[in-house]
Hints:
By secondary structure, this protein is an alpha+beta fold. The protein has helices spanning 2-32, 49-54, 56-59, 97-100, 102-109, 158-163, 165-171, 173-195, 236-244, 282-301, 324-332, 342-352, 362-373, 427-442, 453-461, 473-481; strands spanning 63-76, 79-86, 89-96, 116-125, 131-142, 199-200, 206-207, 219-222, 227-231, 249-257, 269-278, 305-308, 311-314, 320-323, 382-385, 397-398, 401-405, 407-412, 415-422, 466-472. Strand 4 and strand 5 (131-142) form a beta hairpin. The two termini are 30 Å apart.
Amino acid sequence: MEETQNVQGQQQEQDINQLLKVRREKLAVLQESGKDPFQIMKYDVTHHSLEVKNNFDALEGKIVFIAGRIMSKRVMGKASFCNVQDLQGNIQSYVARDSIGEEPYADFKKYDVGDIVGIEGEVFKTKTGEISIHAAKITLLSKSLQILPEKYHGLVNTDIRYRQRYTDLIMNEDVKNTFVKRSQIISSIRRYLDSQGFLEVETPMLVANAGGAAARPFETHYNALDEEVKLRISLELYLKRLIVGGMERVYEIGRVFRNEGLDTRHNPEFTLMELYQAYTDYNGMMDLSENLYRHVAKEVLGTTKIQYGDVEIDLGKPFERITMVDAVKKYTGIDFDQIETTEEARKIADEKGVHYEKRHKKGDILSLFFEDFVEEHLVQPTFVMDHPIEISPLTKKKPDKPEYTERFELFITCREMANAYSELNDPIDQRERFIAQEELIAQGDEEANSIDEDFLNALEVGMPPTGGIGFGIDRMVMLLTDSPAIRDVLLFPTMKTLDK
């Protein structure tokens, strides 16, 4: 059986190599006869496939110029049909020898599926009622030297799909639609924030101090200055400097880089949006988050009720708000407000099988309980508020409960979708928090923040009360496009290099 499969595989490879050879021979003939498609500089497209179909009544009998990739051909003597795919979809073209000429028709019959052509012709309906283009002229714009996957089976191998996204986009219309929606989602976010008086800004990607989040940075050497630098893990510290400078509402949508693992929710480079608003707090950020999600869903999808897998997510209802302590109590019965010491917290963690490290304090253990027992239940939109100070080094303390902070995370479909604070603007408190983070670094915590003296100087100049939030754009796109993995919404996800 195995020998038979090997023989079949070798035969298939030989057949493919022969087909690839034929394509190159066809190109050589075209070039020798002065018809090199790669010498064509431009083609003036007047319409796309969907425009023609949607406006048939106005375009019937009119001449249009379309361009796209041949996805199928039916050659029938003196007349043929081909299907051309462009940005908006696909459309049929009727190609007759008497309409385009004998020599061009002979050339057309040699075109391959995958070739890119321009078609000038009249819009009409076939006898079966299909809107089509009656070709008057066909121009070969690019010769495909590779073979597309078989049409009816498509491109299904996920590894190849991610590595060869260009082929994936050609063969899988739903993939292209996902990335069209991604663009629409980001545009909708910008429109909403711009309408609320926010300014879009850009801040450095190469930084001396990669702070603002708990993550390991990528490190590199900057030759020109002979200095070690890092790729940013967050947008936070520079954007807050702008709040100090008087830019009261700012946001940035950009790539950040975290030296961590790959899974369905994580990619080492991803798109983050952070925004900061002076004179508000984390309650203002909760209101903004709800309004933003509803706006984008309604504008892009036309509804606030969306399907994700087998669950309907209702973005139209008020999002649930619950403290981390109450959430842990709800799902475990353990009330961390009744736990006074780290020793007590460790004892309960041991009883419940929650793994912690020697450096972890009571607040850290509360967070671990939340991760182990609560996150899996947070399907509908939920704000989890008031995180312990140990895991929130840049956040204001709650005045009435200083061991907790004015911080929330938004969870939808059991995933963290946003993280927000009442921003810490006390430079003395911030320095103490940074010092505590430095101690964690000394204990081996590679994700802790180090002291940023210039940021502390900015706080000493004076930052107003401020609310800030970070949104995972990729996760938002996953939700709104019903995509199960982050790689499905990244055009070119990080992949391990193939052995050469």
